[in-house]
Automatic annotation (TrEMBL):
Class of the enzyme per the UniProt entry, highest EC level: hydrolase
Family note: Belongs to the glycosyl hydrolase 1 family.
Official protein name in the record: Beta-glucosidase
The keyword NADP appears for this protein: no
Length: 475
C-alpha cells in the first residue's frame, strides 16, 4: 500500500546557473550572477557558476542517470540570457536549440519536464536599466515567457514563472547579500510588485497561447514560493503577534497575489503608509486578479520560531557550514527568528522539522482552498562523507524519508499534493555557499573532471520510486 496517488510525480530539481556552466558558451549573455559572483567577497571562497556541474555539455549523461534512477519528472530553469543574451531583442538560436535538446532527451525517457522561467539569473543588461524596479523588465519578461511558450509549449505540461521571490527580492533588495546588493525595503517592495505583474502577464500570455493551441491543452502554470511555517517562541501575546506578522511578511505577501490576485489588505496599507510602496500602474490590480495560478510549488527546508524583537537587527546568515555560527535573524521592532533549544539543526543552522511540511501545506489549504501543490524543493544541504570511495549520505536518506512521510500525512489530511522534487539531482553551486554545501543524489567530483558518482541516496530514492513511496526506509 502507498499513500501517494497513482499519478504522483517522482522528480528532482535544479536551476540553470547552479548546474549548467557554459556561462558564455554559444552566444549566452551575462546574468547578474555571472557578474556578481566574480566580485571580491561575495561568495564562499570566490566560487561561481562559470563551470558549475557542466550540465550544458553533459546533459545527456545526466538525463541517463535520471532515467536509471526512475525519475518521472525533472524540474529545471531556463537561463534567460541563453535565449535573449541582452534580455530582449535578438534571439540566440543556439540557446533555443539547447533547451529543445534537453526537453527531447527527457521525453525520450518519459521524464516530464517542469520548467521554471526565472530562478534568479536576471540578464545583466536589464539590471543596467533598473532590473526589477523597472517596468521595462516586466515587458522584457513577458516577451521572454512568450518565446518559451511558443518554442517549448507543445512539449511541456508543467510550467512555473518565478522561484522564491521572497529570497531574490529579500536578499537582493533588503539584506544586500544577493545581486543587485541593495538595502532598501521600499525598493524591495516595488521590485517585488513588478515580479507579480510580470507573473500575471506571463500567465495571461500562457492562457491565450493555450487557447490558440500553441501550448498543449493539458498544460498548467504555477508559481514557486518558499514554504516556511512559523510558530511563536512562547505563548506570550507579543510572541504570538510577532508570529502573525512573520506569517504576513514571509507567506501571505507572496502567496496572496498569485493565489488570490491581491495583497493582504492590512499589510498593503501598512507598507504604503510606512514606505510609500508598492506603487501600482493603472490596470495592475485587475491584471493580478484575472491571472491566478493553476497550482503552487512549495520549497520547504525549515520552519522558524518567532519572537517579539525589541533589540536584534541582523540579516546575516550562516554561509560557512559551521554549525552554531549563525546569529539570530531579525528586524528590530518587528520580529526575530530564535533557535529551538530542543531542535535538530543542519550545519547551516536550519532546523530539521519534517512536521512543518505537513503543517505548512495544510495552512495553505485552509487559507486558499485545495489548490494543487507540488513540493518543488526539499533537501538536506550537508558536507557528505566519503567512506572507502562511497558517498555515504545516510543523513540525507533519513531527512528525505521523514519529509516524504510528512507529505503523505498532508495527502491523508486531504491536501492535493501531486509531486515531490528533492533538491537536487546532482550536487551544484549553492549560491553564496559554493560547492561545499551538497544536496544531490549524484556527487560531482570536482577533482576528477566533474565525474558523476551515484550516492547511497541515489539507490534509496530509486527504490522509493520503484515502490511508489511504499518503501521509504533503507536497509
Amino acid at each position: 500500500m502507498t499513500a501517494f496517488p497513482a499519478h504522483f510525480l517522482w522528480g528532482a530539481a535544479s536551476a540553470a546557473y547552479q548546474v549548467e556552466g557554459g556561462h558564455d558558451a554559444d552566444g549566452k549573455g551575462p546574468s547578474i550572477w555571472d557578474v556578481y559572483a566574480h566580485l571580491p567577497g561575495t561568495t564562499h571562497e570566490g566560487t561561481n557558476g562559470d563551470l558549475a556541474a557542466d550540465h550544458y555539455h553533459r546533459f545527456k549523461e545526466d538525463v541517463a542517470l535520471m532515467a536509471e534512477q526512475g525519475l518521472t519528472s525533472y524540474r529545471f530553469s531556463i537561463a534567460w540570457t541563453r535565449l535573449f543574451p541582452a534580455g530582449r531583442g535578438a534571439i540566440n538560436p543556439a540557446g533555443v536549440a539547447f533547451y529543445h535538446a534537453l526537453i527531447d532527451e527527457l521525453l525520450r525517457y518519459n521524464i516530464k519536464p517542469m520548467i521554471t522561467l526565472y530562478h534568479w539569473d536576471l540578464p545583466q543588461a536589464l539590471q543596467d536599466i533598473g532590473g526589477w524596479e523597472s517596468r521595462e523588465t516586466v515587458d522584457a519578461f513577458a516577451d521572454y515567457a512568450e518565446l518559451c511558450y511558443r518554442e517549448f509549449g507543445a512539449k511541456t505540461e508543467l510550467w512555473a514563472t518565478f522561484n522564491e521571490t521572497v529570497v531574490f527580492t529579500g536578499m537582493g533588495y533588503i539584506t544586500g547579500a544577493h545581486p543587485p546588493g541593495v538595502c532598501s525595503p521600499a525598493r524591495a517592495l516595488q521590485a517585488c510588485h513588478h515580479v507579480f505583474v510580470a507573473h500575471a502577464r506571463a500567465v495571461q500570455c500562457f492562457r491565450e497561447l493555450k487557447r490558440q493551441g500553441r501550448v498543449r491543452a493539458d498544460a498548467v502554470i504555477g508559481f514557486v514560493n518558499v514554504l516556511q511555517p512559523h510558530a511563536p517562541a512562547s505563548d506570550k501575546p507579543e510572541d504570538i503577534a510577532a508570529r502573525e506578522l512573520a506569517d504576513g511578511c514571509f507567506t501571505h505577501w507572496f502567496y496572496d497575489p498569485v493565489l488570490r490576485g491581491e495583497y493582504p489588505a492590512t499589510l498593503l496599507q501598512w507598507a504604503r503608509e510606512a514606505l510609500g510602496a508598492p506603487v501600482f500602474a493603472p490596470g495592475d490590480a485587475e491584471l493580478l486578479k484575472a491571472n491566478i495560478c493553476d497550482f503552487i510549488g512549495v520549497n520547504y527546508y525549515k520552519r522558524e520560531l518567532v519572537a517579539a524583537n525589541p533589540d536584534v537587527d541582523n540579516t546575516r546568515i550562516n554561509t560557512s557550514g559551521e554549525k552554531g555560527s549563525g546569529q539570530e535573524f531579525g528586524f528590530r521592532g518587528l520580529f526575530k527568528f530564535v533557535r529551538n533549544p530542543d531542535g535538530e539543526y543542519t550545519d547551516w543552522d536550519w532546523e530539521i522539522y519534517p512536521r512543518g511540511l505537513t503543517e505548512g501545506i495544510l495552512q495553505l489549504k485552509e487559507r486558499y482552498g485545495n489548490v494543487p501543490v507540488y513540493i518543488t524543493e526539499n533537501g538536506l544541504g550537508a558536507k557528505d562523507p566519503i567512506i572507502d570511495g562511497e558517498v555515504v549520505d545516510d543523513a540525507r536518506i533519513d531527512y528525505l524519508a521523514r519529509h516524504l512521510e510528512a507529505a503523505a500525512d498532508a495527502i491523508a489530511a486531504g491536501a492535493d499534493v501531486r509531486g515531490y522534487y528533492p533538491w537536487s539531482f546532482t550536487d551544484l553551486l549553492s549560491w553564496l555557499n559554493g560547492y561545499q554545501k551538497q544536496y544531490g543524489f549524484v556527487y560531482i567530483d570536482r577533482g576528477n573532471h566533474l565525474a558523476r558518482q551515484r550516492k547511497k541516496s541515489f539507490f534509496w530514492y530509486q527504490e522509493v520510486i520503484r515502490s511508489h513511496g511504499a518503501s521509504l526506509q533503507w536497509g
